[in-house]
Design brief:
It comes from Paraphaeosphaeria sporulosa. One of its GO terms (molecular function) is methyltransferase activity. Keywords: Methyltransferase, Transferase. This is Methyltransferase UbiE. The chain is α/β, with parallel strands linked by helices. The protein has one domain: Vaccinia Virus protein VP39 (Rossmann fold), CATH 3.40.50.150. Helices cover 40% and strands 22% of the residues. It is built from ten helices and eight strands. Strands 1, 2, 3, 4, 5, 6, 7 and 8 form an eight-stranded mixed beta sheet that branches. Strand 4, helix 5 and strand 5 form a beta-alpha-beta unit. The longest helix is centred in the last third of the chain and has 17 residues. The protein is globular and about 50 Å long.
């Protein structure tokens, strides 16, 4: 079993988004669990590694092993760790469905197994969570965060933005992914074997409203809509055309220029306790 096609690919516009992420803005639910500076953490689907390196910097006596299926982004992650001077971290090409191929990963081997914006891109998120549970030691935690596209919102009202959202969700579903998975992470954790009483749930948001925030977020999506692997997925699916994507890119640029523009990304979070 593999993780399957990644809807966004690794275009520069995608990696800019991923590289903005930190522990503070992307896994606030995990912060209360980082008081022990000797933790052993596995970061699944780490991308360019900014969250992973931030985690490692917070546990100087511990260690982080971060995996991602893309050799390209693993090389970028290693460079980021080197630039930050963080040495208690190791990045390896790896897939959660074939974790046995990665040296240093073993069952019950980690105090924390973490995945950020990963399950939404998998055709079988339940199996992935079951594998992550196997890798969490007794007494450890599994921490997962994913957005819910169906809950995203924007202002002012704009038909083009609604078109973007409808198209994105349809294309994701066409490759058997769930773009709205953030709202049911707790349910997947229950199916994976965690009792409901051992699962904490929370919600947090990214908000893009200031001129700089709008320029960054809207610029990413305008570029992603016409230049990343997402464009190819749209065209392959037959659910949209190049003209649709050009229109959507223009809509993002219009949103960027709106002084009263506002965009919210809603994220569901779970911390599941692997009780002894």
């Amino acid at each position: 079993m593999s993780s399957g096609p990644y809807l966004h690919g690794h275009h520069a516009s995608v990696l800019r988004s991923h590289s903005w992420r930190t522990v503070e803005n992307s896994c606030p639910h995990l912060i209360p669990h980082l008081h022990n500076t000797s933790l052993k953490i596995l970061d699944v689907g780490c991308g360019p590694g900014t969250i992973s390196v931030d985690l490692a910097a917070r546990i100087p006596q511990g260690s982080v092993l971060a995996i991602d299926p893309s050799q390209e982004v693993i090389m970028k992650a290693r460079k980021h760790a080197e630039e930050k001077g963080v040495t208690n971290i190791r990045f390896e090409v790896g897939d959660i469905f074939n974790w046995g191929a990665v040296a240093g990963i073993e069952e019950s081997g980690f105090d924390i197994v973490h995945a950020h914006q990963v399950l939404q891109h998998l055709q079988d998120p339940l199996s992935a969570m079951k594998e992550m549970k196997k890798l969490t030691r007794k007494g450890g935690i599994l921490a997962v965060r994913d957005c819910d596209y169906s809950a995203m919102n924007h202002y002012p009202p704009n038909e083009g933005m609604s078109k973007w959202l409808d198209l994105y969700r349809s294309v994701a579903k066409s490759i058997k992914c769930d773009p709205d998975i953030g709202k049911r992470l707790h349910a997947i954790a229950m199916q994976a074997g965690f009792p409901r009483s051992d699962i904490d749930t929370s919600v947090s948001a990214w908000t893009f409203s200031t001129p700089d925030e709008r320029a960054w977020w809207c610029g990413l999506w305008a570029e992603r809509s016409t230049k990343s692997d997402y464009k190819a997925r749209v065209l392959e699916s037959g659910l949209g055309t190049e003209e649709d994507l050009e229109e959507i890119a223009r809509t993002w640029r219009e949103m960027e220029g709106k002084e009263d523009g506002w965009f919210a990304v809603i994220n569901g979070e779970v911390v599941a306790y692997n009780r002894p």
